[in-house]
Amino acid sequence: MPPQPSRRTFLQLTGVSAASVALGVSAPASADATPARPIPDGAFALGVASGDPRPDGFVLWTRLAPTPLATDGHGGMPSADVPVQYEVAEDSGFRRVVRRGLAIATPDLAHAVHPEVRGLQPGREYFYRFRVGNQLSPTGRTKTLPATGDSFSFATASCQAWYHGYFPAHRDIARRTPDAVFFLGDYIYEYGINAGDNLWREGVTVGPEHAVEIETLEQYRLRYGLFKSDPDLQAAHAAAPWFLVWDDHEVQNNYGAANSLYGVPPELFVHRRAVAYRAYYENLPFALDSLPDGPDGRIYRRYDVGSLARVHLLDTRQYRDPLPVDEADRLSEQRTIMGAEQERWLYDGLRGSRTPWNLVAGGVVLTAITDDRTEQWDGYPANRRRVLEAMGDAGTAVMLTGDIHRHVASELKLDFADPASRTVGVELVCSSIGSNGDGVDTDQYAKDWLQHPYVKLYNARRGYVHTTLTRSELTAEFVTFPYIQADANAQPNVVARFRTPAVDPRLEAL
């Protein structure tokens, strides 16, 4: 029998059934692998992906969508269940297949499937593909986490506004084939795409259905179809397993908990959050335990990269207190950007870690910059202090964030107001993949960041960060591109490299 979801009522899932979700993970052994009716050509137009890697497996993903930009959000698929076969092999030619299975793509979940593959060897490269009828998907590469581990390479990326430019950064990430990719929020943007205002990607057009701010399930599905149609994004997904967290634009700009900054009443906004979270799950490689329950979805989770590093993925949107109303409110000891339950979970995970590195991945910048940046951790200084104290009790902390469309490298001080305070780790902030167009090397905000001696880099070009961990050190490369609006052919430039010793957390320029 297919696995049954736990901790789910499904009564709040805006119409999707428990059976549909379970079938999208694994079909019963008796299920027929032949589609009942022909499937339109180009079923795998959105590519393939893997995610949530573990030492014994990972999650696979595809969504059948021969017409990704169909305005009803169903990708040109018929309203029927479709069997999808998958196989996993030790080689790209699929001569050594180690797993085969079947999942059912249902209209309820926009014909997406999320097979969970287990029982594999740790620290191994694998290849996978899907089949529906006589159509074969592109081949994806993925990797299990190591059982022990002496090195781990990963890319960090965020903020991919398709309409602001092409994605050469994703093409370069695919070329490097890292062990994993951390995507740190703003996978899509909800804004209306108007040619006169913000369609900066040259040589493309969009229909009028994209000109409005998205708020329905069908519109969210369509927006994912648009963004995921990019070939370089598909290549990055097919090159490595992804860890993902959300920020605000997967729902609405600067939202927090059930609060919209644009006047949507909370009792209505939770419905928008529910359909946005559902579309997020449908279009990305998440395990079943990240399935949203209506407007609630638990995406904070933890992984161990053998005995080398512990990974903590955060949710800094769903549980945050509202933005402060005044300085006394901002400084309140009770304020939290994570919620009490997630705070306890993180502190327990940090203090219980026995690895030399702790990777903490979230949507917004932790480093103290200016008091008026209340959207970031600057709006929650008491919560930040508690996090830094917990980091100080663990192995060297590496905070991975995005959001600001800038590259920043910073040392994390136990007390940012005291220059002599202990450094407990480093923060690597990746710029955007596409948001804000070409960018520049520096801009009017540089002085806010570089006024602090603990900030070692500020760059406002587009790009990503490539990081390699060993037991003795971290090496981070900040990769930028000279342009992205004209085409996808810009070549990468490593604008800065830093080394951080495991026993002495600091940023040493290379």
From TrEMBL:
Tree of life domain: Bacteria
Keywords: Hydrolase, Signal
GO MF entries: alkaline phosphatase activity
UniProt xrefs under Gene3D superfamilies: PhoD-like phosphatase, Purple acid phosphatase-like, N-terminal
Pfam families: PhoD, PhoD_N
InterPro entries: Metallo-depent_PP-like, PhoD-like_MPP, PhoD-like_sf, PhoD_N, Phospholipid_Metab_Enz, TAT_signal, TAT_signal_bac_arc
Record-annotated Phospholipase D N-terminal domain positions: 46-144
Record-linked CDD domains: MPP_PhoD (cd07389)
Domain annotation PhoD-like phosphatase metallophosphatase: ranges: 154-478
Annotated EC: 3.1.3.1
Enzyme class: hydrolase
Signal peptide (residue range): 1-31
UniProt-listed PANTHER family: ALKALINE PHOSPHATASE FAMILY PROTEIN (AFU_ORTHOLOGUE AFUA_5G03860) (PTHR43606:SF2), PHOSPHATASE, PUTATIVE (AFU_ORTHOLOGUE AFUA_6G08710)-RELATED (PTHR43606)
Official protein name in the record: Alkaline phosphatase D
Organism of provenance: Kribbella shirazensis
UniProt lineage: Bacteria, Bacillati, Actinomycetota, Actinomycetes, Propionibacteriales
